[in-house]
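Hey, can you fold this one?
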Amino acid sequence: MDARPFRFGVSVPFVGGGREWLEKARVVEELGYDVLLVGDNPGVQAPLPALAAAAAATSRIRLSTYVLNPAVRPVSMLVHELATVDRLSDGRLEIGLGLGNRQLDELTQVGAEGRAGLLQRVISELRDAFAGRGSGVAFAQEAPPIVVAGVGPRLVELAAAQADVFLVSGASPRPTNVVGPSLFDLPTAERSYRRVREVAGDRVELASGLQVLAITENRRGVAEEVRTTQPHLTVDEILASPKVAIGTVTEIAQQLRDRRDQLGISYFIVGEASMHELVAVRELLKAGRRGARWDRRRLRERGAVKGLVGKVAVVTGAGGGIGRAASVALGGEGASLVLVDIDALALAESEKVLGETGAPVVCVCGDVSRSEDVQRYVGAALEAFGRIDVFFNNAGVEGPVADLVDYAEEEFDRVFATNVRGVFLGLKYVLPVMLAQGSGSVINTASLASHVGFTRTAGYVASKHSVLGLTRTAAAEVGGRGVRVNAISPGVIDTRMTRDLAAAFADASEGGSPDSILNATPLARKGEPDEVGAVVCFLASDAASYVTGAFLTIDGGMLATR
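Sure. Predicted structure:
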């Protein structure tokens, strides 16, 4: 039995390249995929320049040509570019080779040697180039893996003898010109996989295309969608294909485990897909490796917060204490998450913590005070999930501790850029999405400092007062159109920000210091981030359907005594 773990690759078509394509490459890596594949056909430019750019844009995922058509471009024309990509990526290149049936009908270059003969010659030329014979080029790897894609006895024998990875493709149940992943019958695939395994043992990795038709409990709705997108096939033909997985996350993960156990398939390649589908398949990756934990039915059975199951939540400042705790709370209640933070390391840590909930997660590293970054995280949410139901507008900074007359102007501007401009831009670009949906809940993070004055924190206090003004204005403008806007006002919460503020006060006994506030707090303790997260979940949920324009203090009773 092949002991390889699951690998997941994403085939992203290269159409013109550019910034948008590179952003997709980065997202594929951020989502935890193992391989980025770039398709090639006679109608588009060679994908190798795109892979070269992806080499600079990514650092972990392998890069694959999926698949080069040697009948169109001889290896002698490509070997230098292949070696360049391999060097730029520090040896992360895989080389996919194959010929589609439609292309074979159109091309005469294949000649008498046939498909298998042509591919065998190409592989031989590649192996010579790897060894430095004749071509004079140097690869970073001793021998980049070769993926052979195809079907038929000769190609199967070729793959068993010379390939590193074998992918069944090109055997459609009936002829079709429909754009999208080709489907093939299960018996043909099983015979091909088993023959490769008989000849090559575990030396050759077995790969399968993967078309996830649904992460849903509504099977009937899926069938109707399939009929409209693949009209030449019956539903039974589609569901019988090994390139199709259907069901909930847990059910599809089991299907993949079955395919690994029965056929030895460990490498699944996702065809051109929406970001929503990529996020869903990423959950299969996690489920296949560690066992699925995110299950909507289980959430309902344990009494998840009303209205959060299946919702999409964007959280800014997600790398900090309150942002991370709120993200975990929302994810634990069944929401899909888009996490935003300027600190990439903190963001990665939050994503790791969110893995414990099993919630679908997309991470966007960006500065909330920059309009282009705000539009980017909104765009990422829409591309991944198609909507935004909850917006926790939380990112903020404390600024320095200094008397007002000594407070540096540039520091004041920096605090306002994040705490006020960041909140404003978030509202500006998220609200149109919610208004178009006719629903949504925004929670802005204000502060106890939004209601009272504290010494030596002029920038922070003034900025947090502004957050309340923005909250009330937005609530008044959109309340009649199905969108609620509220604010939370945390007091002394046990976070990095509070600890840094306490340390920065020269005199801990000064009336405005965080530590001294505890002496006047009825509950006489600091709050915990997860206590704030629980309030965020309430305001995000249907349980708060008649709450808008409000601020909820989470301060242990401090404001009641001021």
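The domain at 7-292 is CATH 3.20.20.30 (TIM Barrel). Let me know if you want another pass with a different chain boundary.
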